[in-house]
Amino acid sequence: MDGSAAQARVSPGQRAPAVVRVPVSLRVNGSERRLEVDTRTTLLDALRDGLKLTGTKKGCDQGQCGACTVHVDGRRVLSCLTLAASADGREVRTIEGLEQDGTPHPLQEAFVRHDGLQCGYCTAGQIMSAVALIEEGRAGSDDEIREFMSGNLCRCGAYPNIVAAIREVAGRGDHA
Amino acid sequence: MTMRSFTYVRADSVDQAVTEVTADPEAAYLAGGTTQVDLMKDEVFRPLRLVDITRLPLREVRADDDTLTVGALTTMEELAAHEVVTDRLPLVRQALLLGASPQLRHMATMGGNLLQRTRCRYFRDPDVACNKREPGAGCGAIDGFHRMHAVLGTSPHCIATHASDVAVPLLALGASVRIRGQGAERVVPLTEFYRVPGGTPHVENVLEHGELITHLEIPLPPRGTRSGYLKVRDRASYEFALVSVAAALLIDDGTIRAAHLALGGVGTVPWRVPRAEELLRGAAPGPDAFAAAAEAALGGAQARRDNGFKIELGRRAVVRMLSTLAEEP
Q: Which residues of A touch B39 (CB under 8 A)?
């Protein structure tokens, strides 16, 4: 939160450390995970490359598409703009953590039933966002669902079916 | 895209954080990271040391009769959900909810929001000229693609738009930031915090290196005040403003007793218009007063080739926002 540092001139090569590694411990989908990461590593890359949890997808990698959405301490966030080092000690939930004893989450089933996807690349992010949206109590109407899903883009345009899937699960009340 | 390597330290106290960053000209604070990590990936911002302040105890929101004090690490979502904001600051709540996706609102902090960098594409692309990124390099936007760019507060060196939504109502309300430097604290009204580009577009605000925003202080308008935030954009949601208007009116006995007005999406800094507020105070709410305020609000606007539409759009947005408030029961 510092203006002047952000305004500093680019000075290539100036005492840049080679690679700095830091230990990070995360509780991911209920399991304690420890890893050592380059300070530049995002939570997204730590999950995918470090922990081999490739369900979370890298779309734009710039915080614009929502494909990388995961829950950190119960809140939906963008893992591509979260540094892994900064997430140390946090509780992380990914798409792999939704099923229970081999049974998919009701939203996962609803996405299949309503054809809430075409290519499927955005789907993990859509579902993680939708699970949070229902928990936040933001599924009161189709308009509200659309607004509170606006951070998740679907380039195949499956939006009507995504809204239908969310509406159905929110209305049933068995989404926990 | 290769982010430059950096060392990382997590601050345990405000004093430690300020000392760490002040001591190292290449160090910077890390809060929500939503602008910063993005700019680091693009190599626009290349710190050698990040001081992570996210665990500092600056997340409390406190209200007394006339002021809301907001810890700088309060997230946009937390502030939007606060009962005092819901109850007495509709313009702030609306600007927060219209300002970013839910994921970003859960990450982005209020201090960081005020310091977010422009979305100007020339600033974000190290391969093209930008005086803000590299003083003296020139400005690619002035004769380039600038449909989204500013018409107020511009200079021959920079026409980049300030991107914050919530800064607009905060400015209109007369909010201040509390700033901690090494061994000193100061309070700066937002009206004096931002700097228009002039000949130094890389200087965006009055912060010295190492200074940290610790709190926002938001004056609560008197009960009975009507307020709102109107955001006009190319998409229905999840998009930056072409034009936005934050306004608050206290209307009593057919007369406007108090008026606050600021614009977003049109200025190089969030743009408050004291002249328009003066014209509204004491006037009868209606088309004449609102048209006069709108004219004053865009006074001095200068268009480039492709952004002139913002001037008339801005005037109409002002009239619509004020009319909407006046018609509230």
A: 6
Q: Is A69 in the B-facing interface, judged by CB distances under 8 Å? A: yes
Q: ∠B241-B242-B245 over CA atoms, to 5°?
A: 70
- Stated as kind and residue range, the H or E segment containing A30 is none
Q: What is the pLDDT along chain B (329 residues), one digit of tens a residue?
A: 479 999 999 999 999 999 999 999 999 999 999 999 999 999 999 999 999 999 999 999 999 999 999 999 999 999 999 999 999 999 999 999 999 999 999 999 999 999 999 999 999 999 999 999 999 999 999 999 999 999 999 999 999 999 999 999 999 999 999 999 998 999 999 999 999 999 999 999 999 999 999 999 999 999 999 999 999 999 999 999 999 999 999 999 999 999 999 999 999 999 999 999 999 999 999 999 999 999 999 999 999 999 999 999 999 999 999 999 999 98
Is B59 in contact with B78 (CB distance < 8 Å)? yes
Which member of A15, A20, A81 has the closest CB to residue B34? A81
Q: What is the pTM of this model?
A: 0.95
Chain B residues with CB-CB distance to A82 below 8 A = 33, 37, 107
- Does residue B259 lie within any of the structural domains? yes
Is the residue at B68 inside a domain? no
Tell me the chain A residues in contact with residue B41 when contact means C-beta distances shorter than 8 Å. 61-62
Can you say how many angstroms the Cα of residue B176 is from the centroid of all Cα atoms in its chain? 12
Residue A119 belongs to some domain of the structure: yes
Q: Which residues contact B99 (CB under 8 A, 6 or more apart)?
A: B76, B105, B113, B164, B165, B166
Q: Are B113 and B190 in contact (CB under 8 A)?
A: no
**Domain end (from A51, A76, A97):** A97
Do A57 and A90 share a domain, yes or no?
Answer: yes
**Amino acid in position A41:** T
* Number of helical H runs and strand E runs in chain B: 12, 12
Q: Rounded distance, CA B83 to CA B81, Å?
A: 6
Half-sphere exposure of A99 (CA within 13 A, CB side): 9
Domain enclosing residue A72, as ranges: 21-97
If you write DSSP's letter for every residue of B65-92 in order, what string do you get?
A: SSEEEEETT-BHHHHHH-HHHHHH-HHH
Which string of b and e fits B238-256 if b means at least 16 CB within 10 Å? bebbbbbbbbbbbbeeeeb
